[in-house]
Design a protein that fits this description.
Blueprint: E1 2-3, H1 28-31, E2 42-47, H2 64-71, E3 78-80, E4 86-88, E5 91-98, E6 101-106, H3 120-131, E7 145-152, E8 155-160, H4 167-171, H5 179-184, E9 196-202, E10 206-211, E11 224-229, H6 233-241, E12 247-248, H7 254-260, E13 265-271, E14 274-280, H8 300-309, H9 312-320, E15 324-326, H10 349-358, E16 365-372, H11 376-390, E17 394-401, H12 403-411, E18 417-423, H13 430-437, H14 457-468, H15 472-488, E19 492-505, E20 508-509, E21 524-525
Parallel strand pairs: 2-11, 2-12, 16-17
Antiparallel strand pairs: 1-18, 3-4, 5-6, 6-8, 7-8, 9-10, 10-11, 12-19, 13-19, 14-18, 14-19, 15-19, 20-21
Helix pairs in contact: 8-10, 9-11, 13-14, 14-15
């Protein structure tokens, strides 16, 4: 999905990163006493203020912050573990009676927070709530679902339109709600089966959780948890230092040294699943920056020259203080489909200049680079790219846009050159082929994020097979072959995978997850 840190998730295109929430007033008497047991201790976490969109199913947009909060209230049929492997959740097991049917055996003795018993009726209702409403925030995950059939109270069949090998990956993001509650409630307070029940919310201030002692899994450590929304970064950091909160979801690298000089705090570094890359308009004619003349980006030698001219180590050091890693393709190493054989091109100005000469652009050209104000880092990276490409005589004019304007521009395929990021929420690289690498076919929902009109019939054939092939080994090989073709075409210049940094008091024990969620049940304190 296209990643813009504060952007919306639109279709299969813009689904994105991290979270932030909170409580007012009541922390002072509980958070400062480290002698209390976890039974009495109120855990407090601070997030930024502007990304929480509310509670499922009464929301139109899911971003990371919203997903994190809701994922502690609800369960799905299956879930990802910390390293993006599918594991059982409300479904204990599953099999495929045929290539179009997924049969799930459901967990018994599960209760919703209001005491309702969990059954197959709730699963059928929850899925049909999504498939029957195109405005549902999860609708794009289940477009391949044709029908849901109840086999018995604890068995259900999900039937797909075509063989759909990544249905489990999609279901790992589909919340199961109580049919009885949703059909009769007049409130918008969430009821799920998760580790914590919702207990209070003040907009732009805090969300309160209370441990659900009827949880079907392990008992969580904390009786009460508060997620505070604190707008200003310095205020969030000071809240941690003053021990008004126990953890903040992310800090800037420059704050690490500051915290290291204060006793009692630690930081954890982890990779986000976002690959940031440069991409192009591939049309030979009528590209927006080259009206009436040939588009130089339609020549693979020019694209490859740009790749060679990018000094990624310089970008990472200057923009991220070293807190990023070079990328070699569209996905991170822990995503199914990653090809470890693909290596990024090394910085080589001599080779870049030779390719520009070979392509007839020794004296370069002028082009606009569309980028966004989504973060200071993104702007710094863009400025560095301007300087680096000047060394091969490409004059880059920066067009720095608000996130919404940037997304509109590239979605309208009105950009010759753009800097963007993509994160995979499903753990499967098939979505890169469907959304970015396929030839554009809007009527069938393919190539929806192929903003540069790239088209390669070999990639299209591979993408067709990936979509329906139920053999995991064959799908992996197909995706790896497809990425090899795409990177030989220089369909993009992969840049970096940035690292997130969370900060917390020393007593907190927690390990980051590959999906970027903060699961309260995983946090301990000693």
């Amino acid at each position: 999905m296209i990643y813009e840190k504060n952007s919306k998730r639109i279709l299969a295109l813009i689904l994105c990163t991290i979270l932030v929430t909170g409580i007012s007033g009541c922390i002072d008497t509980t958070t400062n006493n480290r002698e209390h047991s976890t039974e009495e201790y109120m855990l407090a976490i601070a997030f930024g203020i502007d990304r929480f969109n509310g509670f499922y199913p009464w929301i139109d947009i899911l971003n990371d912050q919203t997903s994190t909060i809701n994922s502690n209230i609800f369960n799905c049929l299956v879930e990802f573990d910390r390293i993006f492997r599918i594991t059982p959740a409300l479904a204990e097991s599953w099999n495929n009676p045929n290539n179009l049917t997924w049969r799930f055996k459901l967990r018994k003795n599960v209760k919703f927070h209001n005491g309702d018993n969990f059954t197959a009726e709730d699963v059928k209702y929850s899925i049909e709530l999504i498939t029957g409403n195109k405005n549902n925030s999860l609708h794009c995950l289940l477009t391949m679902v044709k029908e849901v059939k109840i086999v018995d109270d604890f068995s259900i069949d999900i039937i797909t339109v075509e063989p759909y090998p990544i249905l489990l990956n999609r279901l790992a993001n589909v919340y199961i709600v109580s049919k009885n509650y949703q059909e009769h409630t007049t409130s918008e307070y969430p009821i799920g089966t998760g580790a914590y029940r919702f207990s209070g919310y003040v907009e732009n201030n805090h969300v309160n959780f209370e441990r659900f002692d009827g949880y079907w899994k392990k008992t969580s450590k904390f009786q009460n948890v508060t997620i505070r929304f604190i707008d200003e970064y310095d205020e969030r950091l000071n809240a941690l230092v003053d021990r008004q909160v126990d953890m903040i979801d992310f800090i800037f690298p420059g704050s690490i040294d500051e915290l290291s000089q204060i006793d009692g705090f630690k930081t954890l570094t982890f990779f986000h699943q976002v690959v940031t890359y440069l991409s192009f308009d591939f049309r030979e004619n009528d590209s927006c920056c080259f009206k009436g003349e040939k588009n130089p980006f339609s020549d693979v030698r020019v694209r490859k020259a740009i790749y060679y001219a990018i000094n990624i180590d310089d970008i990472i050091e200057n923009a991220f203080y070293g807190y990023a890693e070079p990328a070699s393709q569209y996905v991170t190493p822990n995503i199914f489909g990653y090809n470890p054989e693909i290596k990024r091109l090394s910085y080589n100005l001599q080779q870049a200049r030779q390719l520009m000469r070979d392509a007839g652009y020794e004296h370069g050209f002028e082009v606009t680079l569309d980028t966004t104000t989504v973060s200071a880092n993104r702007v710094n990276v863009s400025n560095t790219i301007v300087d680096q490409l000047a060394k091969i005589n490409i004059t880059v004019i920066l067009n720095i846009l608000p996130s919404s304007d940037f997304i509109t521009k590239i979605m309208n395929r009105n950009s010759s050159f753009y800097l963007v990021g993509w994160r995979i929420d499903t753990g499967d690289a098939g979505e890169i082929f469907d959304n970015i690498l396929r030839s554009v076919d809007i009527d069938n929902g393919l190539g929806t994020s192929n903003f540069g009109n790239y088209s390669n019939p070999d990639i299209d054939r591979i993408a067709d097979d990936i979509m329906y092939n139920m053999n995991g080994r064959e799908r992996l090989e197909l995706m790896q072959d497809g990425f090899t073709i795409a990177m030989d075409d220089v369909v993009c210049v992969p840049l970096y995978i940035y690292k997130g940094i969370s900060a917390m008091i020393n007593e907190i024990s927690w390990q980051p997850r590959a999906d970027g969620l903060i699961k309260l049940e995983d946090i301990d304190i000693g």
